[in-house]
Amino acid sequence: MKECLISVDLANAIRSLVDVMKLKVPEGDLGFTCKECGKPVKPFQGGMQGPHFEHLERNDDCSLSDT
Hints:
Blueprint: H1 8-20, E1 41-44, E2 52-55
Antiparallel strand pairs: 1-2
């Protein structure tokens, strides 16, 4: 499978569309993966961190996962 990067803004737009259409997404996995470890991530709109991706499950072996 070929890799491709997606901006967090586009990922959030897709997440919003999924929510509005009330689509069933197994365990919240929209198909986005971490560019470092390949584990599932989901986009967030912001808050104090601004738009970003977070791992669905913490991954202590990934430097991009929250600690």
